[in-house]
Specification:
This protein has 379 residues and is an all-alpha fold. The protein is 74% helix and 0% strand. It is globular and about 60 Å long.
């Protein structure tokens, strides 16, 4: 009797899930494990998700206000000269960096689907926008969150690291694309006919200054609510699992079913290569490896780890700089790159984008660590 693909994958999934929860339940106890999962998810929802949503609403409102009154266009003019020498992209790409920094990764896709915007790009540059924009996704939210934890210089150093990671990721993606498809070097991203078809005159209604401000704040805030809702699954599912694999028993050394208890599997594995993480990223505690692992899937979920780390005394300024850099640069790219490239019509390039962005995020963390070390040395 032959076993079809769905049956095999179903059996494999069942084995993995059973092995995972049996291993956790064996150490914690089944009842304690279930209680910890529910209480951790509940606490994350109340004390982390709603806090992040508040930040998203405020930053969304400010971002839309900046768009409405030309601040984004002003920033874009200052950044435009840097695009070609650093990223090998046309100057208008800087608008994508600003938009994703103020919101999230998909903003670059919304922008690139505008045929007039896409007409500035060659095909290899157009596809690499996925990597370019992702490196700045939720940047403002990440920085404000880190500042809210009491750190000021470290998040800014992390921002520089994320910019360096973006350069590496974008250039690497372009190199891989041209190696596989040399014709992309000269091919236009969109046909001229498509641009002409989209061009149309839009007559805007006359609005008073008050109405423009009010609409911008409310529309931007509504976008922030959407982002806040979108991060709930990532924070509750990914963070809960990562925390169970990161944290240890309760204060008395035993399991009680309270929130934020776990089996300390990730730190135990990270301690095997502690010397490597110490040298590359300056990690002073093996628990810190949980942040970049979580940021692969969702940066909002990764941010939810920070208060717990701080309460345990597991983080310092260097960790915040590295977390900011790798959190911004990766910003959950494993969960968004496929959808982003699919919307552009280049799903087959997903593996190249993921490889390039993995390298870019590691470079971002590396740069942030050494910049912070220099900052401390000079300070």
């Amino acid at each position: 009797m032959t076993i079809d693909h769905k049956t095999r994958s179903g059996c494999l999934c069942l084995v993995i899930v059973l092995a995972l929860f049996t291993g956790i339940g064996w150490q914690m106890g089944a009842a304690n494990m279930l209680n910890t999962i529910m209480k951790t998810a509940h606490d994350l929802l109340l004390n982390t998700v709603f806090y992040l949503m508040g930040i998203c609403v405020i930053t969304g409102a400010i971002g839309r206000l900046f768009v409405e009154f030309g601040v984004v266009s002003l920033i874009e003019k200052f950044l435009r000269p840097l695009m070609q020498p650093l990223f090998h992209l046309p100057g208008v790409a800087s608008l994508g960096a600003v938009m994703t920094f103020l919101s999230d990764n998909p903003a670059i896709i919304s922008l690139s689907q505008d045929k007039r915007f896409a007409s500035y790009f060659k095909k290899y540059q157009y596809v690499s926008l996925t990597n370019f924009g992702t490196a700045f996704g939720m940047g403002l939210i990440v920085i404000i969150y880190m500042v809210g934890q009491g750190y000021f210089a470290a998040p800014l150093i992390g921002l520089v690291g994320a910019c360096c990671g973006s350069i590496v990721s974008t250039r690497c993606m372009q190199h891989l694309l041209l190696k596989a498809h040399p014709q992309y070097l000269t091919e236009e991203a969109v046909e001229a006919a498509e641009v002409e078809q989209q061009e149309q005159t839009v007559k805007e209604e006359e609005k008073t200054l008050f109405i423009r401000i009010l609409n911008s704040l409310l529309d931007g805030g509504r976008t922030g609510v959407d982002v806040g809702l979108a991060i709930i699954p990532g924070v509750l599912i990914i963070s809960t699992l990562v925390m169970i694999l990161t944290f240890g028993p309760g204060a008395g050394g035993s399991y009680t079913g309270a929130a934020y208890e776990g089996i300390e599997l990730l730190p135990a594995l990270a301690s095997k290569a502690d010397w490597l993480f110490q040298w590359l990223f300056g990690f002073s505690d093996p628990h810190q490896i949980a942040f970049p692992i979580t940021a692969l899937g969702a940066v909002g979920a990764a941010l939810s780890l920070v208060p717990g780390f701080a309460s345990q005394g597991w983080i310092d300024g260097n960790a915040i700089a590295v977390f900011t850099a790798i959190g911004m640069c990766w910003s959950g790219f494993l969960s968004t790159h496929t959808a982003m490239l699919d919307s552009l019509g280049y799903r087959e390039q997903t593996s190249k984008a993921i490889l390039s962005h993995t390298i870019g995020g590691l470079c971002a963390a590396l740069v942030a660590h050494w910049l912070y070390a220099g900052f401390v040395l000079l300070g």
